[in-house]
Amino acid sequence: xxxxxxxxxxxxxxxxxxxxxxxxxxxxxxxxxxxxxxxxxxxxxxxxxxxxxxxxxxxxxxxxxxxxxxxxxxxxxxxxxxxxxxxxxxxxxxxxxxxxxxxxxxxxxxxxxxxxxxxxxxxxxxxxxxxxxxxxxxxxxxxxxxxxxxxxxxxxxxxxxxxxxxxxxxxxxxxxxxxxxxxxxxxxxxxxxxxxxxxxxxxxxxxxxxxxxxxxxxxxxxxxxxxxxxxxxxxxxxxxxxxxxxxxxxxxxxxxxxxxxxxxxxxxxxxxxxxxxxxxxxxxxxxxxxxxxxxxxxxxxxxxxxxxxxxxxxxxxxxxxxxxxxxxxxxxxxxxxxxxxxxxxxxxxxxxxxxxxxxxxxxxxxxxxxxxxxxxxxxxxxxxxxxxxxxxxxxxxxxxxxxxxxxxxxxxxxxxxxxxxxxxxxxxxxxxxxxxxxxxxxxxxxxxxxxx
Length: 452
Hints:
By secondary structure, the protein is mainly α.
């Protein structure tokens, strides 16, 4: 008898997934990048965080409305199928399984290893770092494949731990800065004059990548207790929490050191701010928190990655559906899907190293696999939002038109921003994307799928 995924995750786990996947390494270095982009204009930097946050929230809200109507085995694939039909849902699922999940998972394995290497004084592209990256990738897979419940508990724990340094800086840094006048000075002093519109655009681009990842939480909707109620709550509570934490942390940094010092410090800026308030011990501990933060994000990404090809196979579509829709009777995990997810992540880790961390191996086809898949996911949102507005005639105007329209505008901005930042690398990425999609079309014919 064919088994189904069990309802094993609660609301708090789902919220922790949203917060834990989004809050990773990005917040610890994007703050400095945004400050530099705005020329040290703190209010403009905060506005950029708000703009990026509301783009994320508008998309999450629209999907949360969909979550109250559709539930099957994988949120984004379910929504794509319901809005645009089985064929579109299949290609979205194929993209998520072969590109989106494994590219981001592999990069997070390296980012986690990178901060571990920094902690021990090793190079961030050498053998030590890449060996640790491979270990983290396999360890995250093992945790999710052998004990998904334990993986969910780790996600909650990692989320709580990663919030500690952020909340400490937000509270203590703000109090510290108000007492010594640092916050007032930073709010009223601009380090260098920049064009406000260009600065805002560049800064929002930086926040867009810091905010990415919340959609992955929808991959567990078939395993979430009372998902039609809990998933919308998790999406909204999680995204609002992320935006609030980012802004308060950004203000807290301004209470620790001057804008000019943060801008000059680069990726060491956060460590310098923590050392100023919590002594040199705090500067060391921040790297421990950053590592845990990255591992929590890696765990959430791997959770989605292990279910990627299963979401297609469960519909009797794609590559060897009979094999990849099997559920292990002991762990209640799609074991074969999880193994393929690990393999794909390993392949993309090799690509990321060869394209970004050493002398380029792939010539014209080198691109940043941590960012360009985001271009595609926002492009794939667009027809889903448009179809949603056409079909859901029973919804009030706010849910049917206003929020989806804001989500569409936000998605278009993200697409343009990413293309603006990467330029010709987008062409290289699109070639590989096209090859992967053509392969997906081949498997629909091979299986005799009648996708409508």
